[in-house]
Amino acid sequence: MKFDYLIVGAGLSGAVCANLLTSRGSKCCVIDRRLSVGGNLRCEKIHGIDVHLYGAHIFRTSNPQVWEYVNRFTSFNKFVNSPVANYRGEMYNLPFNMNTFNQLWGATTPEEAKRFIEETRVKNEHPQNLEEHVLNLVGREIYEKLIKGYTEKQWGKSCKELPPDIMRRIPLRFTYDNNYFNDRWQGIPEIGYNALIEKLLENSYVLTGIDYTKNRSISKSAKRVIYTGPLDEYYGYEFGELEYRGLEFELESHDCENVQGVAVVNYTDKDVPYTRTIEHKHFVFDTTSPKSVISKEYPVKWKRGMEPFYPVNDRVNNEKYQKYRDKADKEGLICCGRMAEYKYTDMSETIENAMKCVDRITRNDSSASCSSSYAYPR
Ligand SMILES: Cc1cc2nc3c(=O)[nH]c(=O)nc-3n(C[C@H](O)[C@H](O)[C@H](O)COP(=O)(O)OP(=O)(O)OC[C@H]3O[C@@H](n4cnc5c(N)ncnc54)[C@H](O)[C@@H]3O)c2cc1C
CB of 361 within 8 A of CB of 23? Predict the structure, then answer.
């Protein structure tokens, strides 16, 4: 046995586990089937601009322990996410706030805005689907211009077929504040995501281009395995496939310094096939590149072999996942990360879960598991 732990996956979960375990004296080998480390945080320099290859990643947290931890490796810039929505050429600020209400109805005071919302609400005490739920909360205009098309593209289903609980709350802000997040801290790592992951992995033995599913004998080199990949794949899909929503990215280079004037634009009309366009240079403030790179995000139906992005946490999938999880717990397989836990977690929650996972392992609790709340992807 050369290693204490074999960690499958060099994404944020695997890298944090590796960092915490090696700092406690354990020897870790980290493998990934991709050719580079970082999982979905991976960036690539194009025209001197850090391009987020797997969708825009904005770090945010309200957890002081997570904030202190990441700041051991990097400081963060002052980026604040203030996306805008484009509905058939009409531009609206997000999240829904006084600027949006002014753009929609000319409302200038919170009272006026509340009156407009109240007047357009379609009241329903027992909404049966997402459409009824949203109409009840915010009324027809906000629903049709800013929510319906985007959500239907995102999930590939009509809002009438989606359950109300995927959007329990719709944050309405009655101040002129375009900051998308409410978290205490927010920003992009000054050293970049790739360097952050490399720092986390610096005391581990790292192998890329190795698929665990096809090279299981590698587990003989370690006492225990921490698995951050999809659990249905690990068990050969014996209880059936877990469903995901897929995403495809189209990159465009522009011979122009500034294409859209903001990092994130949401396209909320159903007729535009993509949900968002990202202009990557706006995440940082020191890019001197005369060019720009835009990525368009297209939600797609997921098939086995594609990158799994958003878990579809409906009842059927959650029950299927539980069967896999019970089996993994019985065998003492340590599951950590968004795929092994089959739930969307942002980076803060991912780090928090990895911390809890390592605490449990080092306390010798073989049922190392993490929390199980389900968040709507933002
Ligand atoms: C489109 C999108 C945008 C997001 N934006 C944000 C954001 O703005 N802010 C935020 O906080 N969070 C965001 N997130 C969430 C963030 O991506 C996750 O919190 C984070 O990536 C989870 O890390 P992970 O290591 O669990 O998973 P991953 O990043 O998926 O890493 C898992 C790794 O395991 C490897 N692997 C899997 N199976 C095997 C195998 N059999 N053998 C070898 N290797 C394997 C994979 O190749 C991968 O590299 C976003 C997520 C998505 C999908």
Answer: no
Residues recognised as catalytic: 169, 173, 245, 276, 297, 344, 346
Out of 338, 344, 345, 355, mutate this one to test ligand 1's pocket (max ligand atoms within 8 Å of CB): namely 338
279 by DSSP, 3-state: which?
strand
pTM: 0.94
Compute the distance from residue 11 Cα to the ligand 1 centre, in Å: 6
Residues whose CB falls within 8 Å of the CB of residue 68, separated by 6 or more in sequence, listed in order:
none
Domain that holds residue 131: 93-167
Does one domain contain both 151 and 51? Answer: no
Same domain, 344 and 212: yes
> Based on the structure, what is the number of domains in the chain?
3
Instruction: Assign 106 to helix, strand or coil.
Output: coil
- Nearest atom in ligand 1 to the alpha carbon of residue 210 is 43
Domain assignment present for 131: yes
Task: Tell me: do 49 and 17 sit in the same domain.
Answer: yes
> What is the DSSP-derived secondary structure letter of residue 81?
-
Distance (Å, whole) CA 160 – CA 250: 29
Ordered per-residue pLDDT tens for the chain, 378 residues: 699 999 999 999 999 999 999 999 999 999 999 999 999 999 999 999 999 999 999 999 999 999 999 999 999 999 999 999 999 999 999 999 999 999 999 999 999 999 999 999 999 999 999 999 999 999 999 999 999 999 999 999 999 999 898 888 888 999 999 999 999 999 999 999 999 999 999 999 999 999 999 999 999 999 999 999 999 999 999 999 999 999 999 999 999 999 999 999 999 999 999 999 999 999 999 888 999 999 999 999 999 989 999 999 989 999 999 999 999 999 999 999 999 999 999 999 999 999 999 999 998 644 444 433 322 232
Residue nearest to atom 35 of ligand 1 (CA): 9
Q: Please say which residue of 167, 197, 228 terminates a domain.
A: 167
Which residues are near ligand 1 (CB < 6 Å)?
8-14, 31-34, 39-41, 55-59, 211-213, 228-229, 247, 309, 337-339, 345-348, 350
Q: Are residues 351 and 254 in the same domain?
A: no
